[in-house]
Amino acid sequence: MVLFAKAALPRHLLEGKGRIFPIVLVGIIVGSMLAQLFTFDEFIVLYAESGSAFLSVFPSIIVVLELLSLPFLLQMALSPAFRWLSMVSGWATVVLWAVAMALLANIPEANPSVGFFGTVIDTPLSIWSGLALGLVGVLVAYTSNLLWPLRGAHRKMARKKER
């Protein structure tokens, strides 16, 4: 029985142009998270006025998921389970933003602001905010593919089968 988790580093290190994608995504997430936290009281009110129960707790959930996604993107030494949790948190962040945008679009009394950057930068609910979220989603998927945690596990299994 193992009492302490072993740190699992990615098997391949990113080199060249591919190294920029996780850094850009970290910049986007940290900028968004800091702006949301600076005006968190107004950020909660932005969604609480919609009347939806999901949108009332959405600001708290999204900030926690954004924070949880950072260790994977920063390629920190993590246990394999936490590496997976961190990667899935990045995916869940994009999915929850899409769900929140869909709910806001269908509630006529809702504030027309998405709140990607809290209330610091007013982001109106429009096709452009959907495209921006789509681009972030593509960036999350591409970065997850670059830093995929099972890459080393497949190699280990292949070596065991050869023996």
Describe, in plain words, how this protein is organized in 3D:
The chain has six helices and no strands. It is elongated. The protein has one domain. Residues 8-14 have low confidence and may be disordered. The protein has helices at 20-38, 40-48, 53-73, 80-106, 127-146, 151-162. With 163 residues, it is mainly alpha-helical. The longest helix is centred in the middle third of the chain and has 27 residues, at 80-106. The two termini are 26 Å apart. Helix 1 (20-38) runs antiparallel to helix 3 (53-73), helix 3 (53-73) runs antiparallel to helix 4 (80-106) and helix 4 (80-106) runs antiparallel to helix 5.
Indicate the percent of residues in helices.
55-70%
What is the gyration radius calculated from CA atoms? 18 Å
Return the domain count.
Answer: 1
What structural class is derived from the secondary structure elements?
Answer: mainly alpha
Indicate the proportion of strand residues: under 5%
The overall strand count is 0
Individual helix count: 6
H/E series = HHHHHH
Shape: elongated
Mean pLDDT: 81
| First-residue to last-residue Cα separation | 26 Å
Layout of secondary structure:
Elements: H1 20-38, H2 40-48, H3 53-73, H4 80-106, H5 127-146, H6 151-162
What's this model, at a glance?
The chain is mainly α. It is 66% helix and 0% strand. The radius of gyration is 18 Å and the shape is elongated.
Q: Which descriptors would you attach to this protein?
A:
163 residues, mainly alpha, elongated
